[in-house]
Amino acid sequence: MFRKSLIPFLAGIPFFLLVGNQMLAQQLEVKPVFKVDFKDPTQDKPQSKIWFSSGAWWAVLPDSTGPKVWKRNEGEWMEEKDLNGELWGLPGKADVYSDGDIQFIVLVGNCKLRFLRLKTTSKSIQVELVSSLPIPSDCNQIETATITKDDSGILWIASDWNEQVLVWSSSDQGKFWSQPAVLADSISKDDISVISRIKGGISVVWSNQLEEAIYERIHKNHDLEWSDLITVSKGNKTADDHLNTTLLEDGRMILVSKNSVDQTGKPQFVLRMRSLEGEWKDFPYEDLSEDVSPTRPVITHLPNGVVLEAHTSAFTDGSAEISINEIKIGSDQPIGVSEKIRLKSTNGAHLNNVTLSKQDFTGIQKGPWLILFSDRNGNIYEFDLYPLMKEKQNN
């Protein structure tokens, strides 16, 4: 187990967090960059809602009429109104896997999963395909879904469905989808899954709070069958429905998750590292205090090798901020966590639900490396991680 240490960075930002006389981390006030008609629009926890393509950042976010696509032009976010008219009435919550100028998107609604394929150019974005996934008729609820593509070009979608984990695949870029394969059952209604590309295949990880466990099954490229059940971790309230992953260039995957310990002075998060051989190691961190409750962690890594985690720090007075942390990775395990910056809203809003690109910022060497988060009134905020590269190079 390791605890988070806190160090300052980004000289020139005039706000600091203080505990007693000890300076912990710099604080930056942020203001909304645009707004949608939807509460907490950057949820749900495992989903990625932003991507970089054709020289610009894009986002797909829920609105009262369905999903809406936004483009960032010279620092200003603009709604793609013509495109959004074609998306009216589709489910609004989205997870995006971007591959060059093509975006593969799963849209999540009430017992509905729709697939959307977009194509971007430097001047426009257009709908290439909308299709439906076959959903069992006795569906009661679907909380979330995630999408990825394996090295052989097959698309995969995983979702919690009732008390099961289901997976669909498509070998024709999303035109037709297989009947769902059941990877797990007897999970709770609160559990979720996340699907991720790994070297030579894909991984599906899910929580099972009834068994206090995190499980995985993998599918190797071109195999007909899924692997047997793999226990990532079990016992000691290790499971909760907060899951997010990043795949390092060397093939190791990092899963960040929340546990259900919920005791003051005890770690609330678990960093889980998957080796190339498929072995998992757990590293609890981020203690719950009397004043601050950490929640909803997500993880990514930068082209310069820096691994970053971001999460919500919720305070007892009802406010919430975004904490961004660097995770130092050794040869076979994390060796420390340091908070880099704390983001606070200029209007006192409850900030929550960081969303990251699945691209891990590759191909964007000069930045910006954006993350988005939101508040309960539909306001969207952004933060550029690019200064972290400069800070790293100057040390």
Structure description:
The structure is a single chain. The chain has a domain at 1-30 and 246-395. The chain is globular, with a radius of gyration of 20 Å. A hairpin with a 2-residue loop joins strand 7 and strand 8. It has 395 residues and is mostly beta strands. The protein has helices spanning 81-86, 387-394, and strands at residues 4-6, 16-19, 22-30, 34-35, 50-53, 56-63, 66-73, 76-79, 93-99, 102-109, 112-120, 125-132, 145-149, 155-161, 164-170, 181-184, 193-198, 201-208, 213-220, 230-234, 243-247, 253-258, 267-274, 280-287, 292-301, 307-315, 320-329, 334-345, 352-355, 370-374, 379-384. Strands 1, 2, 3, 25, 26, 27 and 28 form a seven-stranded mixed beta sheet that branches. A four-stranded antiparallel beta sheet has the order 4-31-30-29, with no helix packed on it. It has a four-stranded antiparallel beta sheet with strand order 5-6-7-8.
What is the strand and helix layout of this fold?
Blueprint: E1 4-6, E2 16-19, E3 22-30, E4 34-35, E5 50-53, E6 56-63, E7 66-73, E8 76-79, H1 81-86, E9 93-99, E10 102-109, E11 112-120, E12 125-132, E13 145-149, E14 155-161, E15 164-170, E16 181-184, E17 193-198, E18 201-208, E19 213-220, E20 230-234, E21 243-247, E22 253-258, E23 267-274, E24 280-287, E25 292-301, E26 307-315, E27 320-329, E28 334-345, E29 352-355, E30 370-374, E31 379-384, H2 387-394
Parallel strand pairs: 1-28, 3-28
Antiparallel strand pairs: 2-3, 4-31, 5-6, 6-7, 7-8, 9-10, 10-11, 11-12, 13-14, 14-15, 15-16, 17-18, 18-19, 19-20, 21-22, 22-23, 23-24, 25-26, 26-27, 27-28, 29-30, 30-31
